[in-house]
Structures are given as structure tokens and as C-alpha cells.
Amino acid sequence: MAVETAPQIEFSKELISYIEEWKTKPGNLIMVLHRVQEEFGFIPREAAIRVSNMLDAPLAKIYGVITFYHFFKLDKPGKYNVQVCMGTACYLKGGEDLINELETLLGIAVNEVTDDGLFSIESVRCVGCCGLAPVMIVGGEVFGKVTKDELPEVLARFKEKG
Amino acid sequence: MSTVDIKINGRPISVPAGTSILKAAKLAGSKIPTLCYHSDLEPWAACGICVVKIEGNPRMARACSTLVTEGQNYITNDPEIHTIRKTVIELTLADHPQECLTCARNLSCELQRLASEYGIREIPFDRNVKRLPKDESTPSIVLDPSKCIQCGRCAQVCQQLQDVWALEFIGRGEGTRLMPVSGLLLNDSPCIKCGQCSAHCPVGAIYEKDETAQLMDAIMDKSKHVAVQMAPAVRVAIGEAFNMAPGEIVTGKIYAALRRLGVDAVFDTNFSADLTIMEEGSEFVERVVNGKGALPQLTSCCPAWTDYMEKYYPDMIPNFSTAKSPMMMQGAITKTYYAENKGIAPKDIYSVAIMPCTAKKFERIRDENMQSSGVDDVDLVLTTRELARLIKTAGVDFANLEPEECDSPIGAYTGAGTIFGVTGGVMEAAVRSAYYLITKEELADVNIEAVRGMDGVKTGVVDIKGTKVKVAVAHGMANVKAVLDEIRVAKEAGAEPPYHFVEVMACRGGCIAGGGQPYGTEDEVRDQRIAGLYKDDEQSTIRCSHQNPDITKIYADYLEAPLSKKSHHLLHTHYTPRKVYQK
Asked: What is the pTM of this model?
């Protein structure tokens, strides 16, 4: 069931051919949404509408999937998304303290973005390096055995990069 | 069909292969409680209250979604099962606002009934009730997420039966909400206002917008002449609210009850169903015999279907009959023809419609054509459920009311008018009169069996003295897509249309199972209500719309002829493409 011809969002050629390739295969929706998020960093509503039209899948079904999985984001994250691991090991080693400290330092809550668009905080599950607990990832760079005293310096470094 | 020999609580029984434990137990006379299960929908075992034991198996099974197997003995109740079910209810109640006294579903709530049957006296769990804002954006239904138990019936019916997808599970875990996408309100979603979600919700989380107070106010307002019409499907269903059997025809009792409530005039939408046939039938003759207009012609009396078509198939607008629905026609002639006869100004008439449908509340204000008398042609729409409540509060002993007649000259109806309330009925009524309009002869046998029954799509060929008319009837919105796509493909290819005349009703079974009908609608009940309407048809002395003397009279006195300028002004409308998502 197609949705409508709203002003169309630009998709890269690769994304379009990927969607075309997966169009008729069962279980395609999650695969396609992964690619969309890769391209935009989140899933803009216009992109969800375009996927709905391309896959002939109801928009509600797409949002059912997007909102079910933590992985998918509906809002654009900051340029540097600060992901704090809350998997069992990291949680026990004080992951939550890191989140609380980050919230104070940045003045935002989890899943929010700073006014300058630079930082966002995200709570994630096990990132696969429990030996380094508690783990934090900023802009793709992994920080292990993080203490909350180190946080201002890390943030300052990324802020400098702009 | 192969059968399976099983035991229910030790008693042997043979059931057809592929039967669920739930249905097998019902056949054996053992009731298993359900909450998320509904016979209209695929079982999906969400709530867990229907657990049963399979002898010799350590794990319990959910009766709704587990099929019986040869030789098994199923235990449907024992103290252990009882305790588990009780816990399911207690857990559900822990998250549920206990506002039964002020709830729209007080005394009709399935959760309340279970709590009563299981003798719940206290809730041993921490209360976790969320206060969430209601969605009152549509004119038809209210969504109250605070009361939602997340059984999923509404989303299932919206997706499986209606293929509308206005509702979906959004989010996960305890934050899950049944709602439209990305925080939108229902009115901005694809919702077609059919109200099937409200008819399937087991609790008070989705219900019709209650407007009964408006009728009371109008009755109290002495400057208003309150004129009420009642749709075909109401007469075979409202009795259920007064412990009568589904399908019992209580037309005369409803007329009488309305007068007890204090309204000034009682009319019947069936009269305008006859009028619709004259207009829509003549329109069809123009299209099929005189080649004026697109084929197939699509019926337009179902407002949920109209809304769906405008959103999803706007390319079909030229195919849509321009005839208004019977309700809107009745409203228009009440405030013109009747008003002039009575010497009452249209603004002083309060025109009320009793409908089996929540979408009718929306249709009344859908566009400016609904004001052909200069003011709103219909001022208020109440569902069957709302009227039943009013009758109860008025202390009227409905079951023992002496039947009364309805007011003329816009009340008398034919058998053709009454079957408008059932799938295939509009088509059957149209064929009866189209035959006459084309041939000037009467049809020998007015029963058109090909368009009757509960198949989702029914097709047939009607021979009108050599003119082969191909007809299709679809009900339940999800069944309509196939027919429409077939038409669209032929149209795009420039081929002969696969049909000449197509009837669509949004709800499974037609209006008799509309979203505003008494609760507990399942196929068994649908069949009984349908039988009731066909009985009403058979009992009618006149069974064709064009033979209705009051119809002849209104054309002679007022409208001149079908499709005349005046008829067009009062009885016809037009359609506009709409966005699926308004935002």
C-alpha cells in the first residue's frame, strides 16, 4: 500500500539499487532500514515514506519496526554521538555514573542533542569488549575503563575538533 | 474433512482436523476465557489467559493458537490453571486505571467481566497506571491509551480486516502504544473512521464519541423540531442491548422508543435507501445504456469506503456514484421537502440519524455538499450503542414496547431499502430497479442470490434482457483492494472494465456489523442479523424501490425526476483526492 507522493527525499544511487535488489525478498524491511540509517545517521520521516512507497509497505509497519528496535533513531544524533555501554559488565563497573555525569556536563538527557548539534548521548547494550568496562564510544572512537573524571577532557577534545 | 479424536477434560469428542483447543473446548461445552483472542482475527497468543494443560505434557499451551492433536486429553480448568489465569488478570489490572464506574465500557468490558468471574478482590502487585492524553481528534472515535491493555485487537482489525494501518504497535516493552505513526493523531492518519477498532476493543481504550447529550439538549429546546431517521442495520441489532436475539426485527419498537424519548418526527433511512436506488440506479443506466460516464460504477453509501477511496484510489473518483448516502439524502429532504410541507424553517429542524456506524459522524460534516438545505442537513449522528443507552436511561421497557408506525411522507420503505444494511444488499436493490429502468418490465424473481453471503468478494453476471451486467460485491476493506486493482489494471491498459457495477462496504458483513453496533459481533451474530434483514425484505409487500408510492410522490411533488437539477442539488455530491497522512 503506497503512501503518497510527498516531496521526495534524496537517496544515494547505492541505496536505491540496494532497495530495488531487496524489494521482493522476505525480511527486507530491517535490512533496508539499516542502510537508510547508515546514510542519514537516523531515519527521517521523509525517508520512511519513500521506503514505504518503494517497498509497498504501510508506513505504520515501518514505524512499528523503527520504534521497536533501539538501534533505529528517529531524530538526528549529534555530530559526535556519545554511546555509553550499559551491558552487564559496563553497568556493574559504573556505566550509569558515566551517563549521569555526561548529562550534567552536556546539559542534555539521553537521546537528546546539544543546541550546537555537536553532542548527543545514547545508552547502548554490550559493544563486545567487556574487558574494557566501562566502555564509551565517541564518534566511532572507543574509550575503555573510563572514569567520570576523564569525561571533561574527552568532550573538550571533540569540541575543539568542531 | 478428516476428524481428530480427542478428549476435553476426559470426555471424548471428535472435531475437524485443524481445530484449535479453544474451539474444540467450545464444541465440548467448556468455556475457556479469552482476552486478546477474537474470532474475526488470527490468534496471536498475546495475553496468556487461555492456557490449558495437555495431559502428559509438562508445558501448558495457549488454547487460542494451539491446534488439537489425535488422542490428546486437554484439561481446560483445574485449581492450578485457575490460579494462573487469575494472575494474568491481576497483572493486567495492576496497569489498568480502575475507573469502571465512569468508563464507556462499564458493564460491557471483557476485562471487567473476567475480574468479576474470577472473583478478584485485591491486586497483589504494585500499581503502574500511566496517565496519557486521549486522542479525540476524529469526529467518530476516542482513543484512550491509559486504558489500553495492549491486546492488539485494534491494530489487527485495522491491518488484517481493513488494510488501513492507522494503528500499529509503536515502541516496545511497557512504553508500547497502539497509535498512528510518529505521534500523529488519528485524524491525521489513514484512519477511515469505520470504528471496527472500537467494536473489537475488549476494554474502554477505544470507543465511539458519545454525543447523546446533544440529542437531549435538542429535545429540551422547544424551538427545535427534532426529526430522527434510523438506518436499516439498527433494527436487527439494537434488540441485543435489551437481551433480545441478534437479528430480531424491532423496527416498530425503535420508532416507539424514539417517541418516548420526546422527538417530534420519526423517519426511516430505508426510505432514502429507496431514493438512493432511484438516483444511483438511474445514474447506472446513464453509464451502461447511454455510455455517459465511467464504468464500473462504484457505490458511494459507505463513508468509510468513500474516505478510503479518496485517500488510496483517487483515480477512481470518476467511477464513484455521485449519489449521496441514504443518510445524507434523508437529511437533505427532511430540511427541504418535509420542512416546506410542515412550514418549518430548515434551521429550526434538528435532524438526527441513528446509525450502525461511527464513520457517519464524520460523513455528516465531510464537505460543503452536506449542507444542501443551506444548513447542516444532518445535525447529529448517534450510533446504535448510543441510542440503546439513551433508551435505557429513559427507563423505556424496550422489549415490551408496542410497535408503532413511522411518520410519513418520508418514512415508508420497501424490501429493497432494508437490505441496504447487508453486504450485497445495495447491489441487489439496484439490480431490482435497474432491470425496470432499462426494460420497463418488472423482474420475475427479485432474489439475487449471487450477491448474497459472506464471501469477501462476490461476483456475478446479471442478464437484463440481453444486457449482461457484470457485478462485484466486496466487504471488509482488505477484500476491496483486489477488485480495485483489477479495475485499475484494465483502465490503465485501456481494456474493457472487468465489472460494470461494484458495491463496497467497509465492514465485514456490511452495516449490520458496523463499528457502532452492539458489542460482541462475530460471524455467528452477523449471520443472524443478516437473516433478520432478508426476513424484513421478504415480509415487505413491496420489494423494489421504484414501486414505493412515497418515492413516486416525492418525485411528482418535489424532485421532478431522478437526476433532475433539483435532485442533483440535494441528493448528489462530489469527491476530492485526499492525502493518506494529513501531516
From this structure: 0.93
